[in-house]
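Lecture notes, part 5. Sequence design as translation. It can be helpful to think of inverse folding as translation between two languages: the language of shapes and the language of residues. The source text, in structure tokens, appears below.
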């Protein structure tokens, strides 16, 4: 005579009751979940630089020769006032520097960035006639995360090179070498010192000789051209003719004649190679 022990009935939650009464089944389900999770993890796509767009548009306007305060008042401020009337604009940040103004426009969520850029173009185009005559054509850009630099290098000298020489070395040697590396899209160099020839005008002489600053700018601009003069065919050879710039040094600028006067640049300004 055999006796069978009745199965104990549990009075807890159904999940806990099944886990206690069917341990093998629960173990197999846990192993299945782990296996499925590992397979899903191995097939999960990963992108270090995901493609997404941010509702930010930048507007850059150049004003050669103008100081930051002038650029802010005569260029950045009128553009800000025009853009501020566009619907959906969240914030506007402006930066005025030497000869350039940059306005960053951030739109709110849900705004079509394409339509937003078109609205900015229309507003800025309407303001352009009121800007100073020498301002450049506005440049519009949409903020692209994929265009951000993924590698930054810092170069310093041990003291044997001046900041100007170091910048020339980077521009002439380092940049071409890095550009030849496969996969490099673009390189931007900042810092150091770049060569700049300064023309320091004497306001008293300008007034005494009745010479306008724009005449000096025009004289330098006209002399600093590289014009094509066509080509000449000589048998089996084709020779291209060009008229090179008259300016190769600071002294060349000082000797330039000012159009419409009998004076040269050195008569009304001091030219420095800085």
């Amino acid at each position: 005579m055999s006796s069978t022990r009745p199965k104990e009935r549990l009075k807890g939650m159904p999940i806990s009751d099944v886990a206690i009464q069917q341990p093998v089944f629960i173990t197999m389900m846990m192993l299945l979940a782990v296996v499925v999770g590992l397979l899903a993890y191995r097939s999960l796509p990963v992108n270090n630089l995901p493609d997404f767009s941010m509702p930010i548009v930048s507007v850059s306007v150049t004003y050669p020769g103008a100081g930051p305060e002038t650029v802010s008042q005569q260029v950045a401020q009128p553009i800000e006032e025009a853009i501020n009337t566009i619907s959906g604009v969240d914030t506007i940040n402006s930066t005025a520097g030497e000869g350039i103004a940059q306005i960053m426009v951030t739109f709110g969520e849900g705004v079509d960035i394409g339509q937003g850029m078109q609205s900015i173009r229309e507003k800025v185009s309407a303001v352009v006639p009121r800007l100073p005559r020498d301002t450049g054509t506005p440049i519009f850009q949409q903020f692209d995360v994929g265009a951000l630099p993924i590698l930054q290098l810092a170069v310093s000298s041990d003291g044997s090179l001046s900041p100007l020489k170091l910048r020339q070395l980077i521009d002439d040697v380092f940049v071409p070498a890095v550009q030849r590396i496969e996969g490099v899209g673009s390189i931007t160099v900042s810092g150091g010192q770049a060569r700049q020839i300064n023309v320091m005008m004497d306001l008293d002489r300008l007034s005494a000789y009745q010479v306008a600053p724009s005449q000096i700018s025009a004289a330098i601009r006209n002399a600093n051209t590289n014009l094509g003069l066509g080509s000449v065919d000589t048998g089996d050879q084709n020779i291209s003719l060009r008229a090179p710039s008259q300016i190769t040094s600071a002294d060349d600028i000082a000797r330039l004649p000012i159009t419409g006067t009998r004076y040269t640049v050195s008569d009304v300004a001091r030219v420095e190679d800085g």
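The translated text above is only one of many valid answers, since several sequences can fold into similar shapes. The chain has a mean pLDDT of 83.
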